[in-house]
Structure formats: structure tokens, C-alpha cells
Amino acid sequence: MKVVSSATDLTKVYGRGETRVVALDGVSIAFGRGEFTAIMGPSGSGKSTLMHCMAGLDSITSGSARIGDVELAGLDDRRLTRLRRDRVGFVFQAFNLMPTLNAAENVTLPLDLGGRRPDREWLDRVISTVGLSDRLHHRPAELSGGQQQRLAVARALASRPEIIFADEPTGNLDSRSGAEVLGLLREAVRELDSTVVMVTHDPAAAAHADRVVHLADGRVVDDVRGA
Ligand SMILES: Nc1ncnc2c1ncn2[C@@H]1O[C@H](COP(=O)(O)OP(=O)(O)O)[C@@H](O)[C@H]1O
Ligand SMILES: [Mg+2]
């Protein structure tokens, strides 16, 4: 399996002295193309930190984090920004949509910011996969929570990223909308061969994944495929 994202002995320490926190304590893990992984673990176990470090949103203290063959620690801010924009998609618990833009504009915003021409055919496919073809001119406030999160997933997919990191993407949704978004992530993996890494508290959500990784105290304590 082609490795899309990997960490080797990844350590992240916040603060110093009395406020020193070891958020990640030597994590080694790899995510392959077309793999849907759920990350679970108690609050404070390092789930968000792992995603942020592997996605280049946060610096690492020691060890290595790579997207493909690219070592993130070796990149200056400009290169890191470009790598995130071109190769990584994010979905957060709060949808982080732009309220003044309509759905279509929200989806293409990252491409527009990067000065990239959208691949029309791909966008049409993404938008029909997320089931929002008839909502393109609606603003986020005119969409349900589930639709807003599906829109956020479409935005994450728009640039054809190699990997999507989703941090509790169903955390703010009722169970029906949550199931919709999980089904959509599943479909992105199946139809678009995306790689998805998703943090969740919810065992029912994790059941949608191919693989479940458990963290505790900043370490991988369990890693089960085909669960
Ligand atoms: N910006 C930060 N500054 C200091 N400590 C932090 C910061 N972010 C996270 N932490 C600490 O790192 C640990 C892991 O946090 P986090 O990755 O957010 O856990 P999780 O997502 O599993 O709930 C926690 O002890 C948390 O308090
Ligand atoms: Mg978290």
C-alpha cells in the first residue's frame, strides 16, 4: 500500500517547566492510500495534536512527520502553507465555513486563495458525491448542520488532497446528520480513493472506518485493521 502520511517517533511537548506537557510521546504510524482510519482515545490523549502535527498545522518537537516523501520539519512557512493547501484537506468539528459566501464559493475558496483553476469535472463529482447539487447558491446559515458539514467535506476534497484529516467531524451533529457525514467520508474513500484520518469519541462512528487506532497518554496503545 502506498504510504500517504507517516510519523516516526513523533514527539510533541507543549510548554516548559511546571507547565510542560508531553502531548505525543514517540508515535510511529503510517496511513496508506484509500485507507479510512479512526483515531480514538480519552480526552487529552493527544488525538488532535497528532492530526495537527501530521498535517503540518503544528510544529513537532522531535522525530519525523511526512506527507508522501516530504519531511514537514524541513519546510519553511511558505512551503508548508503550499503543501497544506495542495495536498491536505481538513474537516473540523466547527464547520469553519465562510458565512458570506454561498455553498459553491465555499467549496472553491481554498483553490481560489491558492490561485488554482478548479477542475470542473472533479468539482461536479465531489458536489454530487456530497449531495449538494441543488444547494449551491445557499449560504451556510441556510443549510442544516449535516449539510454544512457535508459542504466542509466537499471543500476539503476540492483540491484532490492526498489525505483528509477530520477532527471530530460529527461532534456537533445529531446522529442522523452524523451518519450522513460518515457515509460521505466512506464514499470519498471508496469512490475517490481518498485517505481519511478521523478523530472520534464515538464507537459507532469508528465502526465506519477500516482501521481503529487508540491513543493513551500520547502513545499508540492499539491499532486494529478490519475491525
Ligand atoms: N496549545 C497547547 N498548549 C499546551 N498544551 C496543549 C496544547 N494543545 C494541547 N495541549 C495538551 O496536550 C495534551 C493532548 O491534547 P489534545 O491533542 O488536544 O488531546 P485530545 O485531542 O486527545 O483531546 C493535553 O494534555 C492538552 O492539554
Ligand atoms: Mg481533540
TrEMBL record:
Entries under Pfam families matching the protein: ABC_tran (PF00005)
Domain ABC transporter: 5-227
Any GO MF annotation of the entry: transmembrane transporter activity
Keywords assigned by UniProt, alphabetized: ATP-binding, Nucleotide-binding, Transport
A cellular-component GO term for this protein: membrane protein complex
Protein's UniProt name: ABC transporter ATP-binding protein
Organism: Virgisporangium aliadipatigenens
